[in-house]
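Q: My labmate handed me this sequence with no annotations at all. I'd like to see what the chain might look like in three dimensions before we decide whether it's worth expressing. Could you predict it?
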Amino acid sequence: MTTTPPSSAFRSAFAAVDLGATSGRVILGRVGPHNLDLTEVHRFPNTPVRLPDGLRWDVLALFQGVLDGLREAARAGGVSSIGVDTWAVDYGLLDADGALLGSPHHYRDNRTDGVAERVWETVGPEELYRITGLQHLPFNTVFQLAAATTSAQLAAARTLLLVPDLLIHWLTGSLGAEETNASTTGLFDARTGGWSTDILESLAIDPGLLPPLRAPGDPAGTLLPHVAAYSGLDARTPVTTVASHDTASAVVAVPATEPHFAYISCGTWSLAGLELEAPVLTEASRAANFTNERGIDGTIRYLRNIMGMWLFEECRRTWDKQGLPTHIPTLLADAARATPFTALVDPDAPVFLAPGDMPARIQEYCRRTGQPVPDSQGALVRCILESLALAHRHTLRQAAELAGRDVARIHLVGGGSRNDLLCQLTADASGLPVIAGPTEATALGNILVQARAAGLVGDLPAMRRLVASTQHLRHYRPRGDATAWDAAAARLGPDLTRAHDDALGHDHALW
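A: Here is what I predict for the chain of 511 residues:
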């Protein structure tokens, strides 16, 4: 049974459907001239499933979680709009009848191993970067499609929808591709802001697979009758296109009120970079593996993906299976007491990409690169956090140099902003003040774009001022001896990189 249209008391209430790599949430946000309040109404797990043909997302369970969350939002009083954001690059395929052709592959599946080299035989890496400005990651959508070239699913497909667009399709029946997420595919032209006909033609990808692009703030439709009936929301409730790539939504909510800032959206991944007005498509930028992804209002998210708290969370999963302590405050306290700079790793080494026994992999990395092997949980966590802080330092310094920008402060948002030790180590390593928070940056950005579409907030600077004035932020100033961090960074130089490559059989290195 549907409710009546939302009353005036709830016209400023917006539902953010926010799906991350390990869980999904529906968060209710209420927006006013001087308030920005969030309430989590439903949380559900995001548990991938390993099938005989690879690692897949359980997208049906995720959609059921979304529906249950919207029902909770209706019970809380209703909403005036719904927005959806998720991770990037992964997609579902629809057949001619609009039915889903199998669950979407997980980006950590190994089906793309070695595929990039095959693609480069047709479109070289320099040409790909000149058009897309996209960081090379082995799981970019363009490589996933190349891996599926001979599959029956792709042969039967008529429409490709990135994960948030697939969920919106199931909510509303509409088809579209939101541009901040589309810009992560390797099929998007960073110069024109549209699908790249050159790449599609060169790689023999049917352009009809790709739906029309939508911008954040565009209407995406209203609820299908059965969705309204299940959720209890009015069928006229609009779904508003938001910055559906979760990082793009998080950057909307960076509480920057002054220029010359850098940001780190820190969760499973650390996305570290700058906000620019135009892409940087130079060969130096390509060689440094920086990406130029769309933000809202035509901005460019100039950043690099760093394998963030994934290493820590995988360690915790392994320790939990082994019956060892996994209480985060205790682990961080032990790490704070551990000897600094005992061992360091490249967080982006391919050996750390897949799920599995992360403590053993880190120890083996250290052993093979001639470093002391961390022999306790605290020492392993210290190794991860110092390595991540050094990756933040290196990435932001390189971004500033390549873009010709000065950086005066770092805004660290997302789940990692709760980690006091990581925030302080990032300030120490970079020599810059770090402003930590908001934790729920992605949901806030999602809700703010909806609120702007409803006329409740102004432009991007106004949205950020509202975040800065309403959310709890913590400040960290650099401390200690900067030369110790310089020495630690020097240890992750060419010699260690070569040792790492020889020992582990990879040609990828961050530094």
